[in-house]
Structure formats: C-alpha cells, structure tokens
Amino acid sequence: MSYKLKTLQKELAALVDRYTVRDGDLYTEISNLLFSRHSIPYRSNRIEPPYKIDKPSIYIIVQGVKDVILGEERFRYGPPNYLVASMDLPIIAEVLEASAEFPNLSCKIEFTRSNILELLSHDALTVSHRGKSSRSLNVAELDVSVLDAVVRLVGLLDKPADIPVLAPLFTKEILYRVLHGEHGSSLRQIVTDGTPAIHIQNAIQHLLNHFQESFQVEDLADIAKMSVPSFHRHFKQITAMSPIQFQKQLRLQEARQLLIMEESLSIADTAFQVGYESPTQFIREYSRMFGISPKKDMRRLKKADEHGLDI
C-alpha cells in the first residue's frame, strides 16, 4: 500500500471517527453520505439488523474488516478495497474486526441512476470496457484517485456552507472514478438499454413490491421480457440467487425487522405477515438464515436494547 493511500486512509478514519458518536448507521449533513460505526463484532453476537442495498452505492471500510453475504456468496473487504453495489438487494453484513478501542468504521456513498446516465454521455466512459462483471455486488481495489475524492467529500462536513455547491461535484468525481474502475461495468449496465440487468431490475422491483405473494417464474420472466431459461440464468448471474431464494431473503429480513419493531406480534403472526403459510417452515428457514430461532432472536434483541447496544 502506497504512502499516499495510507495517509488518506488515516485522514478519512479521523473524520469518520469524529462524526460518529455512537454505534450504528448514521446519516450526515451530506444527503448521499452515510457512516457506520461498530464496536462489537457481529459474528460474535449476531444481533445485527437485516440490511438492504436500495441505491447504487460504494462502501469503503475505514477501519476493520466486513463480510457482506449475498445469497450463498460472501464478499470480504477492508481498507484496501471498496464495495460496488449496483441495484436493490437483500444482504447480510457481518463486522469481523471491531472493538471499543478500534471500532469498525465505514462510509457509504450513494448515487442516482441519473448521476450515472449524465456521466455516460461522455465519450470517454461510453467507450470504456474495463470490467465485465455482471454481478450486482463486487469488491474493487481502492486507489488514490477514488480515496482522495472521498476524503474531500467527507471533509465538507467541516465546512457545511460549502456542501450545497461542492458535494455534488465531489460525488460526480467519485462516480467518474468508479465507472472507470475494474467494476464500473456493473453500474453502467443498470442504465444501458438492452442489457440483461435493465430487464432483471424490473423483475427485482416486482419482487420487492410483492414479496409476500407467491409467484410463477413464467410471470417474472414475462416482466423481464425473457424466456424462462434466460431469465433464470441472468437473474442468478446478477443477484447470486434464484428468484425463490431472493424472495426468501426479503421475507426473512422483513420478518426480523418486524420482530425488532413490533414486540406484540407473535411468531406465527410474523410468519403470516411476510407471506409464509406455515410457521414451522418460517422458523426453520429463519433459524437457518440467522443462526438462531425467531423466539431466541427476539429475546436477544430485547436484551441488547435493554443494555443499550445498537441493533
């Protein structure tokens, strides 16, 4: 790792540490910039809430290491890397290295599809073919050009009067660097007419809006304007899951949110509310996904809340 990169990482770590006064996910004065701070490894206590990517984004770990689980794939990243996410996805994030003395710190920078389209109007990006990944989640190597722009964006929190003018410019620069990076194609494909990602997005949006309902794969393939075999292949390439697995992730993550937010709901009511017809099946699949039964998870979440732990 170069001296310049290390220097920028230390500067970014100091900024994020100063602006995160408690554990959890924290919004900032810059609307598309979010911070995350955790002093306890998730893997040891499993009390993390479900997580969902809902906008094209990059994630940079400032301190520590995280795993992000998408379907059956695990993506590990730390300070040498950043995570590129291109579309709506249900994921599980695990903090692997964290302590009170050395908290896990990260920042998330969100983009809009219009941001991407605006930059793609430039010839230099239109003809760029670097990166061929069809996956909607990828780990890229962090370089000085990306990190320098991120440090300048985060540094605007010290100069709030400059945010309205400079934050959009720095965000545009970051996106420009990412689009030129090794996984820039994963962002380009979500706004490029005729790509499989464009059509799969329509099916994903349908699942997001109707995850409680049963579906026929043929109907999703029609929404994506694909044959069933082609739809299956592209859906799994992009999301690392089959449509059924994708729906199951959405249901179980919504169920966990309900267990956190709605203490009066029974396990059976929770199961029915997210679309399960059998509470037994719900309990079995919940336990498999989160490593703990719904009832025990409720107790653990309540105990964590009573002790002031962020969930």
From TrEMBL:
Entries under Pfam families matching the protein: AraC_N (PF06719), HTH_18 (PF12833)
InterPro entries associated with the record: Homeodomain-like_sf (IPR009057), HTH_AraC (IPR018060), HTH_AraC-typ_CS (IPR018062), Tscrpt_reg_HTH_AraC_N (IPR009594)
Entry annotated with the keyword Transcription: yes
Keyword vocabulary terms for this entry: DNA-binding, Transcription, Transcription regulation
PROSITE patterns per the UniProt record, alphabetical: HTH_ARAC_FAMILY_1 (PS00041), HTH_ARAC_FAMILY_2 (PS01124)
HTH araC/xylS-type domain sequence ranges: 201-300
Name of the featured protein: AraC family transcriptional regulator
